[in-house]
C-alpha cells in the first residue's frame, strides 16, 4: 500500500515546498516578482550598442624615459603582434626636438653680408629685380603702385619702432603686395637708415582671396596668383619714384614662413625688428612667432598686426598672449598692432646672436 500523500499535495505547488519554507512562501514569492521586474527593466534601459572592443593598437603609457628620448622606444623586433608594434612605432609623445621650437641658430652673419648671402643662396647671386619685369609678365600685372593695398600697413607703430630700434635688418612675415614693406622702407629712408627688409611670403594669398581684392591683384594665370611679380613691380616702382634703393634693400623671400625662417636660422641671419602678419589662425601665428623669435637679435623687437581687428580672435591675439606668458614678456597693444617687449640678452655661455 502506497503511503498517503499529505492533504492537497497532488494539486497545489505549495505542497511541494518544504514544510519549513511554507510560512515564508508569500514573502519569497514577492521577492522573486520584484527581482524579475527589476531585472527586466534594467535590461530594457541599458544601451543596445555593443560595448567597445579593446583597440587592436592600444598605446600603452611609456616609461618616463620614453617621453624624453625617442631612441628608447621598444624596437619592433622585441614586440609581439600588431598592438606591440604600434606601441613601438608611435610613442605617445613626439620627441622633444620635434615639438619644441628651435631657439639656437647659426653663428651670426655680419649685417652687411646678409643681402649678398641671400642673393647667392636664393637667386644665383643676381638681384631678382634685374631686368624685371619681362614684357610677358608686365602684360599680366596691374599698373605698379607705390601705395598698394594693405591692412594697417602705415600705422604709427612702424615709424615708432624703426626710430627706436634703428634696425639694420627687418624681417617681415606676410608681405602681400608690399604695402607695409614699402612704408618701412620710406620711414627708414626719412631717418637716414637703409635696413635690409626681408619679406617672407609664399605669395599665394589664401583661398578665394581674389574675390575681395579683384581691383588690387592681377588675375591668376594657370593657378599662379601672380602676387610675387606684382609685389616686385610695386617695389621697383617705389624705387623709381625716388625711394632710391628700395629694390636693392626690399628682398622677397618667396617661401613658406616656416621654411624661410628655418633657413635664416641655419644661415645665421638675424633681424633687429620682426613684423608678423602672415597666417592669422592660432597655429600659424603660434608657429610664426616661435620660429621668428629664434632669429630675433637680443634687444630686438617683434610686433605684428591684428591684435584689435576682426581677425584678431581667430588666434593671433591668443598666440601672442600665450607666447608672452611663456617667455615672461609684456604685450603692448598699439592701435591694431601688438608689440612685445624687447628680446632679453642671451645668458652667458650660449651660442647665437649677440
Ligand atoms: C595680411 S597679408 C600681409 C599684408 C602686409 N603685411 C601688408 O600690410 O601689406 C598676409 C600674407 O601672408 C601670406 N602668408 C600667409 N600664410 C603664409 C605662410 N604660411 N607662409 C608664407 N606666407 C604666408 C599671404 O600670402 C599674404 O600675402
TrEMBL record:
Residues making up the signal peptide according to the UniProt record: none
Renumbered residue ranges of the record's region Disordered: 46-92
Biased composition (Low complexity): 46-62, 76-89
Annotated TM spans: none
PANTHER family: S-ADENOSYL-L-METHIONINE-DEPENDENT METHYLTRANSFERASES SUPERFAMILY PROTEIN
Protein name (Swiss-Prot/TrEMBL): Uncharacterized protein
Organism: Urochloa decumbens
Biological classification of the source: Eukaryota, Viridiplantae, Streptophyta, Embryophyta, Tracheophyta
Amino acid at each position: 500500500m502506497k503511503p498517503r500523500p499529505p492533504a492537497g499535495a497532488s494539486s497545489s505547488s505549495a505542497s511541494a515546498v518544504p514544510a519549513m519554507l511554507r510560512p515564508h512562501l508569500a514573502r519569497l514569492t514577492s521577492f522573486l516578482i520584484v527581482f524579475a521586474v527589476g531585472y527586466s527593466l534594467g535590461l530594457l534601459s541599458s544601451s543596445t550598442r555593443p560595448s567597445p572592443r579593446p583597440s587592436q593598437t592600444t598605446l600603452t603609457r611609456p616609461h618616463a624615459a620614453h617621453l624624453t628620448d625617442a631612441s628608447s622606444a621598444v624596437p619592433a623586433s622585441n614586440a609581439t603582434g600588431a598592438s606591440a608594434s604600434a606601441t613601438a612605432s608611435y610613442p605617445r609623445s613626439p620627441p622633444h626636438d620635434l615639438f619644441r621650437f628651435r631657439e639656437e641658430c647659426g653663428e651670426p652673419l655680419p649685417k652687411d653680408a646678409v643681402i649678398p648671402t641671400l642673393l647667392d643662396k636664393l637667386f644665383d647671386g643676381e638681384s631678382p629685380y634685374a631686368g624685371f619685369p619681362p614684357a610677358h609678365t608686365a602684360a599680366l600685372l596691374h599698373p605698379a603702385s607705390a601705395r598698394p593695398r594693405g591692412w594697417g600697413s602705415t600705422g604709427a607703430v612702424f615709424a615708432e619702432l624703426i626710430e627706436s630700434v634703428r634696425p639694420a635688418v627687418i624681417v617681415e612675415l606676410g608681405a602681400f603686395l608690399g604695402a607695409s614693406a614699402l612704408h618701412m622702407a620710406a620711414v627708414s629712408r626719412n631717418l637716414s637708415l637703409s635696413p635690409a627688409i626681408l619679406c617672407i611670403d609664399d605669395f599665394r594669398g589664401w583661398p578665394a582671396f581674389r574675390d575681395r581684392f579683384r581691383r588690387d591683384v592681377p588675375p591668376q594665370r594657370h593657378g599662379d596668383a601672380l602676387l610675387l611679380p606684382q609685389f616686385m613691380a610695386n617695389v621697383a616702382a617705389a624705387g623709381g619714384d625716388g625711394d632710391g634703393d628700395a629694390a636693392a634693400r626690399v628682398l622677397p623671400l618667396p617661401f613658406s614662413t616656416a621654411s624661410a625662417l628655418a633657413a635664416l636660422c641655419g644661415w645665421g641671419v638675424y633681424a633687429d625688428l620682426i613684423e608678423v602678419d602672415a597666417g592669422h589662425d592660432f597655429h600659424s601665428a603660434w608657429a610664426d612667432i616661435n620660429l621668428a623669435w629664434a632669429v630675433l637679435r637680443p634687444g630686438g623687437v617683434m610686433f605684428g598686426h591684428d591684435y584689435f581687428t576682426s581677425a584678431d580672435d581667430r588666434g593671433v591675439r591668443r598666440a601672442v598672449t600665450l607666447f608672452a606668458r611663456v617667455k615672461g614678456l609684456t604685450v603692448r597693444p598699439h592701435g591694431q598692432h601688438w608689440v612685445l617687449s624687447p628680446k632679453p640678452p642671451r645668458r652667458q655661455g650660449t651660442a647665437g646672436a649677440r
